[in-house]
Design goal:
5-stranded antiparallel β-sheet, glycosidase, NAGPA, hydrolase activity, acting on glycosyl bonds, hydrolase
Length: about 260
């Protein structure tokens, strides 16, 4: 078990965020922020932030109260890295290298219903919204991420990233789906007080929340969770180096009232 105790992980009320410092199995601690949404009253959408923007002010300018960082991006042109579609239309993006482009995890929203699956299990030209990131953390209520297996090629294909994103503890973000609920999760890291999480620890966290499916999103200095119109986590770009407001990002997941 990655956590010394799951007591701090009590669920927030629907439509609210809860922040708690959790203790990991080796005694390290980190702050975790969890927002919970009812799928009957909340719609998930994918948004593209043209030319990039910090998530909190971008949301404030458009009247969005609830949002989570989306997928990765490439420098210097800030295009999304991984497939992005909104309302069935493919947006400009840089594809993941083959063969990983065909297997990396996606969140797909069609007819107001969200699912998290490998890209190979989704239609080639899907309707609705789609965001590709990964790796897949949880499926059928169980942890499926195993770094040694590298089934989605994040270690083998690390050349498209700043580093191997599967290695070590870092600030991270994830989307989780449960029966009738959605979870937006972010954790702090890169400081003496916040260790961050490994992807295995993040996956176990999502299972402890009751998620049947969950996927990793962009992390590090890009980690951003906006709830109630405010940025709830504390982004850091490097060790003990704050990233005020979070790094500008290229895509986001919006949680909107139906």
């Amino acid at each position: 078990m990655a956590f010394a105790s799951v007591e701090p992980l009590k669920l927030p009320r629907l439509g609210r965020v809860r922040s708690a410092r959790v203790e990991l199995a080796d005694g390290a601690r980190t702050m975790v922020h969890v927002a919970r949404y009812d799928t009957a009253t909340t719609e998930l959408r994918v948004a593209v932030l043209r030319s990039q923007a910090r998530l909190e002010p971008w949301c404030a300018a458009r009247g969005y109260d609830e949002a989570l960082v989306g997928g990765f991006f490439v420098r210097p042109d800030a295009l999304p890295l991984g497939e992005v579609r909104t309302r069935g239309v493919a947006r400009r993006f840089v594809p993941f290298h083959a063969p990983w482009d065909g297997v990396r995890a996606c969140v797909h929203v069609r007819g107001g219903v969200a699912s998290i699956r490998p890209r190979s299990e989704i239609a080639a030209q899907p309707a609705g919204d789609l965001l590709q990131a990964g790796p897949l953390l949880v499926r059928d209520g169980a942890v499926v991420f195993a770094r040694a297996d590298d089934t989605e090629g994040f270690s083998a294909g690390e050349s498209q990233f700043d580093s191997d994103i599967t290695d070590g503890r870092h600030p991270r973000a994830a989307l989780g789906l449960a029966d009738g609920r959605m979870f937006a999760v972010a954790c702090d890291g890169r400081s003496r007080h916040d260790s961050g999480l490994t992807l295995e620890e993040l996956a176990e966290l999502m299972v402890s929340l009751g998620c049947g499916a969950a996927m990793n999103l962009d992390g590090g200095g890009s980690t951003s969770l906006v709830s109630g119109g405010r940025l709830r986590n504390r982004p850091r770009s490097a060790w003990e180096r704050p990233e005020p407001g979070g790094r500008p990002v290229s895509t986001a997941l919006l949680f909107l009232p139906r």
